[in-house]
Amino acid sequence: EAGVVQSPRYKIIEKKQPVAFWCNPISGHNTLYWYRQNLGQGPELLIRYENEEAVDDSQLPKDRFSAERLKGVDSTLKIQPAELGDSAVYLCASSLGGPGQETQYFGPGTRLLVL
Amino acid sequence: DQQVKQNSPSLSVQEGRISILNCDYTNSMFDYFLWYKKYPAEGPTFLISISSIKDKNEDGRFTVFLNKSAKHLSLHIVPSQPGDSAVYFCAAYLDTGGFKTIFGAGTRLFVKA
After folding, report:
1. By C-alpha distance, which of B50, B46, B31 is closest to B89?
2. What residues make up the domain containing A78?
3. pLDDT tens, position by position, A39-75
4. Predicted pLDDT of residue A71
5. How far is A109 from chain B (nearest CA, A)?
């Protein structure tokens, strides 16, 4: 079974430019997460989807970040405009969702460098 | 406010010996605790978990111990192997009606051959 797929794996952009990341979760997983991981830190949740609905976006900087999960399958995370501090690894994860389904399956991440 | 803390950034262990990775938490309402393992250029992968109603869970060479009174958990790897060298993240899961998972900063384990 295929795991969580993310693209691109690496992205280098100049500040103030837009950037987008794509994620395809494990088939049948209703819950999708976007995390940001800074160097030397653990993953920090940006947004969580239950099917198409964003049920927790409290940590998403909404002035510049946006996300969508059309049709409740794959998802896109966008930053516009990017700032130097956005340099990090952006991880997508999925899970079956619901009580007792706490195990998350992570993709390899997109490493973003903003110059 | 760090609710999940891993105070040791790194740990070095000889092959064949025991590795003990520690994690402290502040919120007594966490329902589950999980350990994830991460190799370079890969995403974290689930390793082992423990329910808050238990004090021990074992899976092969990996055992997690939970001390709720001390709000402390530990991961024991016995015997340690060079392939265990990775970053280990402790995570705590809270079912608030929203299922939030909070990760620690990670501990990098080096297993020397």
Report:
1. B46
2. 5-114
3. 999 999 999 999 999 988 988 999 999 999 988 899 9
4. 86
5. 6
CATH of the domain at B67: 2.60.40.10
B41 lies within 8 A of chain A by CB: yes
Helix (H, G, I), strand (E, B) or coil at B54: coil
Domain that holds residue B90: 4-112
CA distance A53 to A21: 18
- How many domains does chain B fold into? 1
Which site among A102, A103, A104, A106 would you substitute to test the B interface, given the most B Cβ atoms closer than 10 Å to its Cβ?
A102
Give the total number of structural domains in chain A: 1
Contact B43 A45 (CB under 8 A): no
Nearest by Cα to A67 from A59, B26, B36 = A59
Q: Does B104 contact A at CB distance below 8 Å? A: yes
Q: Parallel, antiparallel, or unpaired: how do β-strands A105-106 and B86-94 relate?
A: unpaired
Which residues of B are less than 8 Å from A45 in CB distance? 100-101
